[in-house]
Amino acid sequence: MNKTAKTLFATTALSAALGAAGLAQAATLNIPCSTGSGFASCEQTAQEWAESRGHSVNIVTVPFSSSEKLALYQQILGSQSADLDVLDVDVVWPGILGAHLADLGPYTNGAENDHFASVIANNQYNGKLVAIPQYTDAPVLYYRKDLLEKYNEPVPTTWQQMTETAERIQKAERDAGHDRMWGFVFQAKAYEGLTCDALEWIDSFGGGTIIDADGKITVNNPQSAAALDLAGSWVGNITPQGVLNYDEEGARRVFQGGDAVFMRNWPYAWALGNGEDSPVKGKIGITPLPMGPDGKHSATLGGWQMAVSKYSENIEVAADYVLYVSSKDAQKRGAIVDGRLPTIPALYEDPEVLEANPYFANMRAVLENSVARPSSVTGEKYNQVSNEFWNAAHRVLSGKSSGADSLSQLESKLKRIRGRRW
Ligand code: GLC
C-alpha cells in the first residue's frame, strides 16, 4: 500500500470507529491561525487533528494583533456566520464574546479539571464553560547577558535602574560604532498590547489596576501619572520613536536583530531568540519585569483559550478539536516548540519542557502574582475601556500630554463609558 492509500485506509477505518462512537461524519472545520511566528505550529496541529479524526480543515489566516483579531471576530460572530467554527479567545474576551460561544460543558468529560482553576473560572460566561485554555502568558524582561557582562552591570531590578543601565550601555555601544543600538524596546502601538505594558508600569508604581474589583475607576492618581511619565521619557532616548508602532513582533525584531539591550515581551520570544538563525542565540537572559519605586513587581496576565462558535454547523466536531489543541500533549509541544506557558500544572515539572525553557521553573510564581486587566468587572465594555486606556498611554509616550493630564482626561472618558454601572 502506498502512503496515500495507507492514510486513506486509516482515515476511513477511524471515521467508521468514530461514527460508531457517535461522532459526526467527516466534516470540514474553518480554523483560524494567526499570522506571525505561531502560524506553522497552528497549521500543523490542525492538519494532524484532521488526519487522526478523518475530518478536514480549512485554515483561515487571521491577524496577529489581539485588537485586530477581536474586531474581525466581532464582525463574524455579530452576523451569526459560520465562517469560523472555532476561535482563539484572548483571556480578556469571555465577557465580550461569551454570548456567541457554545457551551463546552457537555463535551469536556472533566478535561477542565486538568487546568489552573483560575483560568477555567475566567472562561465561564453566564455559568457556562465557553472556552478551554490553550496557554497562559505572563511577560518577562529579556536582557543581553553578554552586554551586561561586558559593561559589568548587574541585572536591573527596578525601572529606574533599568533606565540607567540601558542609557549607559546604549551610549557605550554607539560610541563603539553600533549606532543602531537602543536601550529598551516594548509594545507601544495603540492596541491591546500597550494596555498590558502600561498596566504593568502603573501597577508596579502602586497606581492600581485602572478599575478596581468593585468597579471603581482608580486610574487617575499621582503614582500612575509618574509611571507614565517615566515611560514617556524613554521614547526617543533609550527607545526608538518607532516603538509607537511596535507590537510584540516589532519589539522582538529589534531585540533579536541584536539592536536592543532590554525587551519586555511574552515567553514566546525565548524560543525564537534562541533559534538557529537568531543573531542573539545563547546571549539572552530572562528576569522578572522591574519593580516600581516601592519595590512592587507587576506582570499582566495574558493567555489564549479555544472556543467553539455557537453558529458552527459542527459544534460537536469543533469541540473535539478544541479539546485536542488544549490537551496535555498539545500544550507540551506548544511549550517546547513555541515557548508557551502551559495551563496544566504538571507540565511545569516536565523535564523536556524545562530543558527547552529552564526559566519556566520560576514562572508559576510570576503567574500567581500577575495582575489581571479589568475585564471581569467591565464585561462587554472591556474593549472600550482598554481602548481609552491605551490611547491615554499613547498620548504620553508620543509626547502629546503629561501623565497627569492624560489620566484626568481618561477618567472622564471611562465615567462616560461606565454610565450608571458597568
Ligand atoms: C498576548 C497575551 C494576550 C494579550 C496580547 C496583547 O498575546 O497573551 O492576553 O492581550 O498579548 O498584545
From TrEMBL:
Gene Ontology molecular function terms on file: maltose binding
Pfam families according to UniProt: SBP_bac_1
Keywords attached to this entry: Signal, Transport
CDD domains on file: PBP2_TMBP
Any one GO BP annotation for this protein: maltodextrin transmembrane transport
SUPFAM superfamilies: Periplasmic binding protein-like II
Signal peptide limits: 1-26
GO cellular component: ATP-binding cassette (ABC) transporter complex, substrate-binding subunit-containing
Coiled coil segments of this chain: none
Keyword Signal: yes
Family: Belongs to the bacterial solute-binding protein 1 family.
Name of protein: ABC transporter-binding protein
Upper lineage: Bacteria, Pseudomonadati, Pseudomonadota, Gammaproteobacteria, Oceanospirillales
